[in-house]
Amino acid sequence: MEDRYEIAATKLKNARCGVALTGAGISVESGIPDFRSPSGLWSKYDPEEYGYIESFRKNPAKVWRMILEVQELLNNAHPNPAHISLAELERAGHIKAVITQNIDSLHQRAGSVEVIEYHGHARTLRCDFCGQNYLPDMISLDELPPRCVCTGPIRPNFVFFGEPIPTIAHRRSMEYAARCDVMLVIGTSATVAPASYLPYIAKERGAYIVEINPSPSAISETLTDLYIGEPAGRALPLVVEALRRLKGGSL
Ligand code: APR
Q: Domains along the chain?
């Protein structure tokens, strides 16, 4: 009997176009909490008060205090074996892209090249009024919120609830979802639309869905073809190892 890692590896070996969709869970082992687990960010910060663009516009100073806490976590985080395994899979041609809901840049830091940041990123900021872009070291945090020369509040370049997905990221993700024949769904509760539609689009077009998540998600029992109930930092290196074995030693 083949084990789950071997099945996943065989699917990736035969894939014409493998794609990974990642969520906050892939970065938990890098020290960044996810959102909806018991110790997740939304258990500490009410998303109604902190997560919506309206929350930011109503009280930017308050939302900035959460942003600073998250930024501190991001500054101290490093890619873990799951991020590194995905970069290896891309280099070896077994996946073509990573679509991530994360804003932490850990995929790029691990060496992934084709990374689609579905919810934006935390590397740069912009004025919420005029759109002027800023690098973090260009702004003063002595008073919150930091303000643009036009007086508008500056905000990170990630997506709040209630905002549209960046157009290019959305279009490319839809294309990859429609084109892939294997989708790895890793560390996401698959509850936040429209990112949560991507596995459905992939499946509808015939893709095989491999899911890696220690706790079952919204799709585990309905959409997933192969469920691996382990932390990503343990499971993905085992998938890579199984793939190496199948290919006779090298990836
Ligand atoms: N390995 C893999 N998965 C894990 C791990 C781990 N080590 N630890 C936790 N998980 C799983 C959890 O079981 C959960 O199913 O990761 C998932 C994280 O789910 P959420 O907290 O809902 O995060 P995500 O799916 O990325 O949220 C989507 O919601 O608040 C917004 O914009 C935010 O991008 C985010 C979006």
A: 1-31+78-119+165-251 (3.40.50.1220), 33-76+121-158 (3.30.1600.10)
